[in-house]
Design brief:
Number of helices: 10
Number of strands: 11
Distance between the termini: 14 Å
CATH superfamily of the largest domain: TPP-binding domain
CATH architecture of the largest domain: 3-Layer(aba) Sandwich
CATH class of the largest domain: Alpha Beta
Shape: elongated
Order of helices and strands: HEHHHHHEHEEEEEEHEHEEH
Strand content: 15-25%
Amino acid sequence: MLDQVAAALKGARRVVALTGAGISAESGVPTFRGAGGLWRRFRAEDLATPEAFARDPALVWEWYGWRRSQIATALPNAGHLVLARFESRFPDFLLLTQNVDGLHRRAGSRSLVELHGNIWRARCSAEPSRVFDQTAWSGGEPLAAATGEPLPRCPCGALLRPDVVWFGESLNPDDVARATRAVRECDVLLAIGTSASVYPVAAFPAMARRAGARVVEVNVEATPLTPQADFVLRGPAGTVLPAVEARL
């Protein structure tokens, strides 16, 4: 199967990779959901919402500070690094990730769409287009406002919020449009460490196949995506992707 996937990639000009929590879990990033995702007495679903931020922004920022502390020690793994190198191997390559941990950027990926945002950025709660990257942070924690208030504020005076997509929010339409265009035009779609079960991402594999692309699943277990895949490579991305790259 590795040789078949490598052959499909050798003949490809346009390649899209779609990654989910699985590739980050290999680097030790917790999922923050379910029984293993508890923080104090709250669930992610109770804190990652616009309503929670409006009700208690200090609590939400405290939780995101804790999340960043858990992610800060994680390093990109071999799977992240292969995907970064794929940018220079294929004439047209785009990486779509559902992860917010920033590990793909740290691995060197630049042809990248972070569909769910990035936990190391913040944006204005009043003007979402005003985004602040990690250079606006001190020690990984939000800078105190000039007034001495512990919650970070935009220069306009509104509260900053994490630049991530919360439950009940839609993805950035520009990101979705770019992703959809790339999926419809690709020759190969690599789905790595994701079940691709939440829309609009769930539509991407079938969309790629309808356009004539080959769909490759890389995952440690079967997922709802498995029946749609032309090729299935079982195992962690950090092992499977270097094995594919070695055959190119």
